[in-house]
Design goal:
By secondary structure, the chain is mostly beta strands. It has one domain: Rieske Iron-sulfur Protein (3-layer Sandwich), CATH 2.102.10. Helix content is 0%, strand content 50%. The protein has no helices and ten strands. It is globular and about 40 Å long. The relative contact order is 0.24. Bound molecules: FE2/S2 (inorganic) cluster. The site of FE2/S2 (inorganic) cluster (FES) has 10 residues, from loops.
Length: 107
């Protein structure tokens, strides 16, 4: 089945090694640039009320600004305490310098 892609953002707005928050289908989503590959997860940490787009992207891991838990942005997997619940992830697609987000979450 084809994915429906909706929200779009210029790739230049998410520079290498950076993370940017966008509104996507009514939800806050963080978009990450890991060495030119774009990934997207829910913006809110699964541990508390923190915005991961305010955190630090270290390679493919995002460090939460509140308690320094970590997630693998490629899979959403929680990789460092105190986080133990995975993030929702969204498929991304890059076309002509524009990042598109899939309407539904990836698995
Ligand atoms: Fe993110 Fe606690 S709110 S680690």
């Amino acid at each position: 089945a084809g994915d429906i892609f909706s929200t779009a953002i210029e790739a230049t707005e998410v520079p290498l090694g950076h993370v940017k928050k966008v509104m996507h289908e009514g939800s806050e989503v963080a978009i990450y640039n890991v060495e030119g590959c774009f990934y997207a997860t829910q913006d809110q940490c699964t541990h508390g009320l923190a915005s991961l787009s305010d955190g630090f992207l270290i390679g493919e891991f995002i460090e939460c600004p509140l308690h320094q838990g970590m997630f693998d942005v490629r899979t959403g997997e929680a990789t460092a305490a105190p986080c133990d619940i995975s993030l929702k992830t969204y498929k991304t697609s890059l076309k002509d310098g524009v990042i598109f987000l899939a309407r539904s979450t990836g698995e």
